[in-house]
């Protein structure tokens, strides 16, 4: 259509992934436009609580040619510091970002791709979907059976203990967010109840160093998904829980239990206002500890094999065991007045009208390259490696996709030059 803005490349998403892609395209001399439906670093601004901080050390923040430059490389940036880091990166690279422009439909057209946006139609030769996989806060339908006088929010809406009514709080889910929010509430003196799932845990410090530093030395953040024992199934695995709070420490749910936090097995149902709970609490705690000690053993082997001088370290020994299986929880009797659903997010790709999805409705790709020529994905968990969905790995992934885009553009230009002229 005449007058429709056209770009060689459109990047959808203005977080660290989209901005990293912008930096790499700029270095390659490829014109592009970034579309962000909210603001730069939107999820960092709005979906983290007030005391949120990174769980990986600052030195792992390695956006393209923009590593962390502060005075605390072994520390953990707070939420607002993370936002400033991403904003400063966008300013440094002079990213061509249109904020407040949502893409509502992406499809093919005769010359490439057509995008319906809040600013009107746009077209592009190439499109990079840098929108993560966490789109819609997920609250299970079981929540509908909870009494109306119980406040319910998703973890993405949690800010601080003061927003909750007086009384106890139940956190459902023990992944990274659930455990850290439970800790935040516990430290604030709120009576905290936690539904414990099967998420693994990781030591914070071991053998004289942050465990992340050891794992980085071991190449764990560089291991391609194809070489992981679980293959692509690892993309569905929960992240290990630990915290960077107050300089960093383990999250030990058993110790929290000693201090008064109530732990339960999985939530299975709600009947007559009572939560029906699974009998897997001990198994889930043991499983998390086994992963913790497995990481310790991996580090021990590395130290021994490389003949590294390091302090001795002790594997974790449980400090608490559940003495009974609690099969039912009466919220009113327990004094619980609020519930935080730390149950993750679901993906919403309904606006992408292209055949790039697998049987689960998730983008199928090989290192970000989809089966539709000219469509790429970036910033997804385990896109290529464990570091892909983190500050540590997104620069490498962006550089790889930029190379693919540059090669594709060169092939197209070469084809045009070689195309016979018909008189």
Gist?
This protein has helices at 16-27, 42-46, 79-93, 176-187, 211-217, 253-258, 281-305, 394-418; strands at residues 6-12, 32-36, 62-63, 66-67, 97-99, 103-109, 112-117, 120-129, 136-137, 151-154, 168-172, 192-195, 205-206, 209-210, 262-264, 267-271, 274-277, 328-330, 336-341, 345-346, 375-377. It is α/β, with parallel strands linked by helices and 423 residues long.
Describe this structure as you would to a colleague.
With 423 residues, this protein is α/β, with parallel strands linked by helices. It folds into 2 domains: 6-135 and 347-418, FAD/NAD(P)-binding domain; 138-341, no CATH class. 25% of the residues lie in helices and 21% in strands. The protein has 8 helices and 21 strands. The protein has helices at residues 16-27, 42-46, 79-93, 176-187, 211-217, 253-258, 281-305, 394-418; strands at 6-12, 32-36, 62-63, 66-67, 97-99, 103-109, 112-117, 120-129, 136-137, 151-154, 168-172, 192-195, 205-206, 209-210, 262-264, 267-271, 274-277, 328-330, 336-341, 345-346, 375-377. The strands form 6 sheets. Strands 1, 2, 5, 6, 7, 8 and 21 form a 7-stranded mixed sheet that branches. Strand 13 and strand 14 (209-210) form a beta hairpin. The relative contact order is 0.17. The model has no long low-confidence stretch (mean pLDDT 94).
